[in-house]
Amino acid sequence: MKNGIRFTAERMVFMDEMFWMDIDGPDSIERLASEFCPHLGKDSFFDL
């Protein structure tokens, strides 16, 4: 990685309370975007 900046992908979870759960990473924003952006606006988004 050129600049060493790492990101995580998270999703909001609603159980007894609301919280954020890591679902992938840390990794480059490019890799995370290529993994998760194709699911936006689709039913597969809810399976992440």
If you had to describe this structure to a student in words, what would you say it looks like?
There is one protein chain. This protein has 48 residues and is of the alpha+beta class. It has one domain. Helices cover 17% and strands 38% of the residues. Strands 1-2 form a two-stranded antiparallel sheet. Strand 1 and strand 2 form a beta hairpin. The protein is flat.
List keywords for this structure.
flat, alpha+beta, 1 helix
Brief summary:
With 48 residues, the protein is of the alpha+beta class. The protein is built from one helix and two strands; from the N terminus they run E-E-H.
Number of strands: 2
**Average pLDDT taken over every residue:** 91
What is the beta-strand fraction?
35-45%
Tally of individual helices: 1
The radius of gyration computed from the alpha-carbon positions, rounded to a whole number of angstroms, is 12 Å
Helices and strands in order:
Layout (H helix, E strand, L loop, with lengths): L6 E8 L3 E10 L1 H8 L12
Antiparallel strand pairs: 1-2
